[in-house]
Amino acid sequence: MVEDVKQPDYFLESFPKNNFPAYVWDTKPDLPSQVWTTETTHRDGQQGGLPLSTEQSLQIYDLLCAFTGQSGAIRQAEFFVYRESDRQALEGALERYLGGAPIEPTTWIRAKREDVELIKSLGVKETGMLASASDYHTFHKFKPGGRKQAAETYLAAVEVALELGIKPRLHLEDATRASLEFMLPFIEAVLQKAQSFDDSLRPKFRICDTMGLGLPYDDVALPRSIPRLFRALKAAGLRPEDLEFHPHNDTWMIVPNCLAAIREGCAAINGTCLGKGERTGNAPLEAVLMHLIGMGYFAANAPDFKALNRLAELYASMNQALPAKYPLYGKDAHRTRAGIHADGLNKFWWMYAPFDVPALLGRPLEVSLTKDSGLAGLIFMIKQHLGLELAKDHGQLLALQAELNKQFDAGRVTGVEWEELEPLLSGLEP
């Protein structure tokens, strides 16, 4: 028989009242001493369908800077350079960065000698370079094709970048379908090229799960196992700060894969805030950072998650609104339509909230009135908007609920929101 206890156990070590849910380790993994994210809205987000003008690009950059503040949560943002509007956005971001903005602008180019020549006068200190790694690419992008030709092409571009004093960041595209027999010798060759240059130019390697095929499990074979992949790179001598992970969400594994990469020694996750990006989207940095805070990172200085509400509003104004049920920032992400949930919110709101959503995200817990929300939903909505706590036998409340039930019984299927309810509450008293 279950024994009663004097006080409820809320597992406050795991679910602190003033922060996101925390990781309580049985055996703590060997995590990097520092982790951060890098941002690709202006490149992969735009490539994925965001119609960015120069002005919109800079609005996004400014909002991301407001989000990260002095936390170091987002350290870099990458820009296209092939169109005039993109170069103007890059120049505007560089001007802001030199003036003290916290996010360093970088570029994205193909690993070709002529592309490196294109960026040499732009003033960037680091550039991403597309270096497709799988045989799906190396045998079919190049003519006659193959691993050797691809590697030689990439290395020639790396050499030009180093000579120009630009730090190369090799984007190993399609790494979760690539052989280590290509990647490890290529990485070694890149590092050898850089040996005679200053350590500030030491190349970085972005590991790209381009088709979202990676899996966060140890007991899956390479090339799909994210833990095994990063463990092999670490064994090859790469440091946490040498590595970035750039996943896509095609098979729904994007956040678990990011966390698996960090657990195996990758210091940086590349993605976009609010998950914009090619096809199913890039890593949603707000979700990754929420988990990183849970792991104990950014304890002294956290990013301001409330600032991302303005980014969601900007996307809506661009006809790129988030799906209503998008986690954390969708308009219905914290909305219940179930009476039993609304009743729980009335009695003890932590019952149906994952964390202090209003304090941490600046978003309210909400109820929509439906055929299933009952008196509890009506009570919650009135309390939230008017601050009145009504008993379930309140006469006016019962009359209003009866009217709503009549509409639902007559076939209404849409919810009742506050704007419709408010005019019916004139003269309401406790």
Attribute tags:
430 residues, alpha/beta, TIM Barrel, two-stranded parallel sheet, 11 strands
Structural commentary:
This protein has 430 residues and is α/β, with parallel strands linked by helices. It folds into two domains: 282 residues, TIM Barrel; 91 residues, no CATH class. It is 39% helix and 12% strand. The chain is built from 16 helices and eleven strands. Helix 2 packs parallel to helix 3 and helix 12 packs across helix 14. The two termini are 43 Å apart. The mean pLDDT is 95.
Please specify the SSE layout and strand pairing.
Elements: E1 36-39, H1 41-47, H2 54-68, E2 74-79, H3 84-98, E3 104-110, H4 113-119, E4 126-130, H5 135-138, H6 147-163, E5 167-172, H7 180-194, E6 204-209, H8 226-235, E7 243-247, H9 254-263, E8 268-272, E9 283-284, H10 285-295, H11 308-317, E10 335-336, H12 339-347, H13 357-361, E11 366-367, H14 374-386, H15 395-409, H16 418-421
Parallel strand pairs: 1-2, 1-8, 2-3, 3-4, 4-5, 5-6, 6-7, 7-8, 8-9, 10-11
Poorly predicted ranges (pLDDT <50, ≥5 residues)?
none
Strand content: 5-15%
Helix fraction, binned, reads: 25-40%
- Please identify the structural class as seen in this structure: alpha/beta
CATH third-level topology of the largest domain: TIM Barrel
Our count of domains comes out at 2
Name the CATH class of the largest domain.
Answer: Alpha Beta
Count of extended strands: 11
The total of helices stands at 16
**Mean pLDDT value:** 95
H/E element order = EHHEHEHEHHEHEHEHEEHHEHHEHHH
The second-level CATH architecture of the largest domain is: Alpha-Beta Barrel
Task: Outline the biggest β-sheet.
Answer: 8 strands, parallel, barrel
**Gyration radius, to the nearest Å?**
25 Å
Q: What's the N-to-C terminus distance? A: 43 Å
Strand order of the largest sheet: 1-2-3-4-5-6-7-8
Q: How would you describe the shape?
A: elongated
Can you tell me the CATH superfamily of the largest domain?
A: Aldolase class I
